[in-house]
Amino acid sequence: MFVEAAATKVTAMHLSKDALLYVRQSTLKQVLHHTESAHRQYDLRGRAIALGWASDQVQVIDVDQGLSGASAADREGFQHLVAEVSLGRAGIVLGLECSRLARNSADWHQLLELCAMTGTLICDEDGLYDPRDFNDRLLLGMKGQMSEAELHFIKARLRGGVLSKARRGELITPLPVGLVHDGTDRVVLDPDQAVQQALRMLFDTFTATGSATACVKAFRAAGLSFPWRHQKGPRKGELDWKPLQHHAVLRVLHNPRYAGAFTYGRHGRRPGSATGSSVKLPREQWISFIPDVHPGYITLVQFDANQARLTANAAAHGRDRVAGPPREGVALLQGMIACGRCGKRMTVRYHRRRGRDFPTYVCQRDGIETAQPICAVIPGADLDTRIGQLLIDTLTPLAVEAALAVSAELEQRADDADRLRAAHVERAQYLADLARRRYLAVDPTNRLVADTLEADWNTALRELNTAQRDYDTATAAQTGQLTDAQRARIHQLVTDLPAIWNDPDTPARERKRIARLLLSDATVSRDRDTITAHIRFPAGTDTTLTMPVPKTGPEARRTPTETVTLIDELLDHHISGEIATILNQRGMRSGTGEPFHHKIIDHIIRAYRLRSRRQRLRDQGMLTPAEMAAHLGIALSTLKYWRRTGIIAAVTYNDKGENLYPPPNPDNPLDRPRIGRPPTQQP
Fold it and tell me: Does the pTM of the predicted model rise above 0.70?
C-alpha cells in the first residue's frame, strides 16, 4: 500500500527538491539513554531513498535534540524546516511521527498550510501524506490534535503523582542549605556543625535586631562567612562559603523548611502575566503545608513572628502597613503614628533650627493625591518628649532584668562568632590534610597528576593560613566581646536609665526600637489649643496623653516658667556656668531647644529681671575689692595677692572670676588678716 501511495503521490517535481528529515527527542536524558528512538528516526533516511530521493538530497535536521515540541520557540531546527518549506525547497518532510515535528496545534497546522501551498509531502512511520488531499489533511489534523492531547495527558499524570506525594509530605524537593536527606530520604539537620552554628546565629541576630540588613552588618563586623550550595555546574551539590548577602538573609527567613514544615505550592502564576511570572500566595492557598515534619532551626511560632517583622519592615508602597522600620531621624513615632481625624498614616517632616532637627507629623495623603488641604499638622518635639517620659516610666522597673539580658545576649553572640571562626579553621585544616593525602598517594613518576595535586595542596595550605590569620586577628581584637565601656554602659542602664535615654550619644534608631517594643501605635488629634495622643500597648491596654499645642514664633522660644523659677533659686548659691551644668544634667533645654551655657543663663537673668548673683551677695553685706582694700587700709594689688594665697576669703559671683569679700567682724579684733607671727594671747 505504501508503494502504491508513493507511485501516485511522489512526482518528478518532488524528487527534484530536497528531503528534510527532522530528528528530535524532548530531553537530554532521552538523548543519552533512549537511543532506540533515535535509531528509528535516523532510519527514516532509508525511507526517503526508497521513495526515489538520492542520498545527497536527504538533509538531516537534528539540532533540536533535548528540546520540547510544545512550542516552536528556541527550536532553530524546526524554524529552519518551516523556512525551507515556505521557500519551496523541500519536496518531502519526514518524521517518526507528527509529535516529533510539533505538539502544538498552532505550529502543526501552520506547517500543514505551508506544505499544502508549496506541494510538499509529509511522511511518517505509518504512511505518506499529501496535505493538498482532503482525506490526508483530515488525518494529519487528527494526528496533530492527538499529539497535543497526549502531551496534556502526560503532564496531568505526572502532575497528579507529584501533588499526591506533596499532600502526604513525601515529595522529595531540593532542600535549603542547613538541611539534608539522610540514607532513608528523611530530612535532617546538616551534620556540619559550622553550618548549623551559622544558621542559628543568623536567626538569633534577626531576633535581636529585627532587620535583615542588620544581620548582614553583624556577620561582616565579625568577619564571618555563610554557607551555600552550588546548584549547577561540575560542583553541583557541594557546600561552599561566602560573605553573607541581604538576599540570602531574606531567602532563609522566608523559608518555612527551617521551621520544620513541609510546604509545596507557595508560589503561583500571576494572573494575566504574559511572561508567566510567579507571585507569592497566602498560606491558605498553598497546595500542602504540614508543620513539624522534620527537625528545624526555629519553631513555627518564631517563623510567623519573623514574617510579621519582615512585613512591618517592608517598604511603604501600600496603605495596609501600620508601622515602618526605625530610621535615623529623631522622630520617635516615625512609622507608628496615625491621624486621629482620618485614620491614615502620618509622615514626618524635619525643620532645622540652630543646628538641631525638629520633627513635625503631617497627614498629607489626600493632599498629595487629590490636592486637598493637609488634614493635620502635629508639632513633634514636645509630643516625643512626653511619650519618651512615658516609656522611661514603663522601662525603669524592668531596667535590671533588661541589663542582664543584654549582657548575656552579647556574651552569647561573642561565643557563637568565635565558634564559627574556629570551625572555619578546622574545615580549612581538613581540606589541607585531604589534599596532602591525595598528593602522597599518587605515583611520583606520574608528573601530570602529581603537579595538579601539588597545586591543590598549596592552594589548600594558603587557605588554611588565611583562615588561621583571620581567626588570630579576631581573637586578638576580641571581636564581639564586651569592652569596659560597654560593661559600664550596661551597668548605667541599671542605675540611670533616664540619663541613657536623654544622652545625645544614644542613637535615635535605638530609642525607636525600644518604642516599638513597648507601643503598638499612637493615634494623635489636634484642636485649637490641645493635642491628644491615644497610645496603645501590645498587651491590649491603652492610655491617653493630653498636652497644649506648642507655641510658635517668639512665644515658642520663651524659657519655661518652671525653668526661670529654678534659675532664680540656684542664683542664691551658684554662678551662671554652674547653673547651666546643673540644668543640662537634669535634661533640661532652653526655649530654643539648645543645651544651657553661661551666656544663656545671663540672658535669662537680664530678660526676666532676676536679681543677679552679685546683687544677692551685695545684699548680704559683701564688699567690693575697692571697699575691702579701703576697709583694711591696703592697696588693691595687696588684696588680690592675699586672696590668691588664701590669707583672705572671697566669693566668686560670675564666670569672669570676679569676687566679692565678706566684711571683717568689728567685734572681734582678731578677725583681721595679719602677716607674719600671730599675736600672743594675754593671760
Answer: no
